[in-house]
Amino acid sequence: MAAPGVYVPRRAVERRIATYVPRDAPPAWDRVAAGVRSLVSQASPGVPYETAELMSVLARLAMFCDGHGITSAAEWLEPTTIDWFLDLGCTAVSSHTRATYRAKLRRLTEAIHGVDGAKPIALSATDTSRPYTTRELAGLWSWARGQPTSALRAGCTQLLALSLGCGLAADEVIALRAGCVRTVSNGVVVVEVIGRRARLVVCRQRWEAVLAELASAAGSGFFFRPNAIRAKNLVSNFLARAHRGPTTPPVKLSRLRDTWIVEHLTAGTPLPVLVAAAGLDGLSSLDRLLPHLPSVGADRAEKHLRDLS
């Protein structure tokens, strides 16, 4: 593609896709080339990146998947597959480069599959993820406690406590075992996250009592929906069945997690502590949340910048 804002004929884009070959292409390229070209051809009209950039990053992902037995192009852009690739297949590149790969792969996925199953639309390079407001959070608490059955009330409350209290993502909630949520000797509630981003997270104080009560009622199996089959859409399917009133905001664990992160940033939680607790690769993944942080007055900014011991 040409520079941003310069029209490039579709025929020229397709020609670049059809003739692209990675530098020093290994034998795996021949096996994945058709799938890579097909996906980029579908996505390129709605993605604000040059064709060569998209081909390069998707080729890396596809060849990584090929080496691990994932041969279906439909599986390459699964969120768990992308995370696996970034965590294990990109150890030789910088955290900034991994963040760039993540952004491009996210745009590819959204352009092909749409956002949360919606009709695909042309996307800009900006991420519009917005944390919940205080009023919306109050509405979500009422939503959880007002569900018509005990199972729905428990599940909704678990999701709020684990995301707003501990910053867990959907896949981490699904994998969480009941024994991984416990109260330690000083009364602090901790959650042991397992999987690729294994870590120990300290629950926010305002959610301690809620999470401790939920943990005491849990059995010995999985914490969230213990009798359900572990599937990647377990959380989204559960939320689709939960009752939601006309004034209840849409419930998304990614937004709940972002809210947790923004509240910590606003409160001044040291970045190394927050990055470790959130299981992030580095600071670059926080960039999209900076516009949602509250502004700081001139006097307070001056104090922060001047009053270092």
Strand and helix layout:
Blueprint: H1 10-19, H2 28-43, H3 51-67, H4 73-76, H5 79-88, H6 95-113, H7 134-145, H8 150-164, H9 170-175, E1 181-183, E2 189-193, E3 199-202, H10 205-217, H11 234-241, H12 253-267, H13 271-278, H14 298-306
Antiparallel strand pairs: 1-2, 2-3
Commentary on this structure:
With 309 residues, the chain is mainly alpha-helical. It is 52% helix and 4% strand. The chain is built from 14 helices and 3 strands. A 3-stranded antiparallel sheet has the order 1-2-3. A hairpin with a 5-residue loop joins strand 1 (181-183) and strand 2. It is globular. The N and C termini lie far apart (51 Å). 26% of the residues are buried. Mean pLDDT is 84; it is low at 1-8 and 116-128.
As a percent range, the share of helical residues equals 40-55%
The fraction of residues assigned to DSSP E strands is under 5%
Global geometry? globular
Low-confidence stretches: 1-8, 116-128
Topology pattern, helix = H, strand = E: HHHHHHHHHEEEHHHHH
Radius of gyration equals 22 Å
What's the tally of helices? 14
Beta strands, count: 3
* Main beta sheet: 3 strands, antiparallel
Question: Average pLDDT across residues?
Answer: 84
Write a brief structural summary.
The protein is mostly helical and 309 residues long. It has helices at residues 10-19, 28-43, 51-67, 73-76, 79-88, 95-113, 134-145, 150-164, 170-175, 205-217, 234-241, 253-267, 271-278, 298-306; strands spanning 181-183, 189-193, 199-202.
List the keywords.
14 helices; mainly alpha; globular; 309 residues; 4% strand; disordered N terminus
